[in-house]
Amino acid sequence: MKRITLFTCLFSLLILLLTACMGVGTSANAVGGEVTGVKGSSFAEPTPFGMVAVRKGSLKVGLEENDTLWGAEFPKREISVDGFWMDEMEVSNAKYRQFINWVRDSIIRERLADPAYGGDETYKIEEDKEGNPITPYLNWNKSIPWKKANEDEARAIESVYVTHPIDGTKMLDASQMNYRYEIYDYAAAAQRRYRLNPEERDLNTDASHDAIRNQEVMISKDTAWIDDDGRIQRQTITRPLSGPWDFLNTYIVNVYPDTTCWVNDFQNANNERYMKLYFNNPVYDDYPVVGVTWEQANAFCAWRTNFLLKGLGGMAKQIQRYRLPTEIEWEYAARGKSGSAFPWESGEVKSDKNCYYANFKPDRGNYTEDGSLITSRCGIYSANSNGLYDMAGNVAEWTSTVYTEAGVESMSDMNPELKYNAAKEDPYRLKKKSVRGGSWKDPESMIRSAWRSYEYQNQPRSYIGFRCVRSMVNDAGKQPKQKR
Q: In this structure, what DSSP letter does residue 480 have?
């Protein structure tokens, strides 16, 4: 018994020493000694699929010389940005179609679980493994019976399709392709003026605590719902601050691209073929998606984030959300490592072998001199020094930034951004978003990395697409050597 007791004591002492060394399960004030810090578990961020790293750095944005051809003034300023991941190519029709199909399949699953369509409860999970009720969510492990559906299942599946009244073509009902998502505004919630504890709102005031406590603080949040007629209703609510839920914004966006943009953007032109084929025909799978508004591009980013997080498990908390690039991030990435006027090193638009570096309009009315009439397949031109394709021409690209004439002059010089979620009733001038890169229809001067343009956030175009970015968890990059 004595040997067992001695062994037990020695084992307990060993555990105590190991625990103290690891800093696990011990109080910070339990013992004295040197302050060594409490370190978290290590995390190596995997490279996101189809993205490249754009390392942190600085850039003098704008043009050194004014644009005499177009009479445009370009604000100039030196700025610095953190590192981020960026899609190496523009979001293609195939990738955006995956989004549309996900929305379609989620609607079908909702209806398969609905008693009006047979009520198959296995398409929705409403209890945890212990049988406790939870917030219901769709069961994506349950397959949709596309080929062997019974009568009720067939009705649910067919409910998302319509038949063209003239030619009888069966097609997806675009009006039903609505995506609902929520975004919590952490930046607004962190501002001192919105603190739930009134005494934290102004730390440098002579006002009495009672005066601060009784001061009413107003917040604005976006919300959306579907009315009884199936129409999306959006509202920006302004009300007194009441709790953390005031910073949760809800959006419902019809995400089907406007395939008619080819006809509406070009009057007196025979572009009907693109209207019918461009988004849905597999010939154009790897071409950049167009006809997508700024609002739809943001919805895609939200869906892509949620789609990723469901597959990551415990790692999800470490990952940043997909989003549109800021205007400055886009220019910094486009200019490449040397900060060139174009995404390539040369100041010319074609090589010594007479090959163009991008898809744009080289001459008046001659769209085909560079080999393409409209858009070209993503990635057929060489990448810039950051590994990014089509940062000039092909399609112009949405950014997250509100467009103003002042540009960077009104921004911070560190991670600059101007952001404003325009309410439905706001003047249209507040709904301008910065668009960068120029497109297949633009001349040489408009595909320069510094060229600034804009479009209204709800306006789809046949020459505007987008790509996503994601902030890096840690961009160590090359650290300067310290003198010792």
A: P
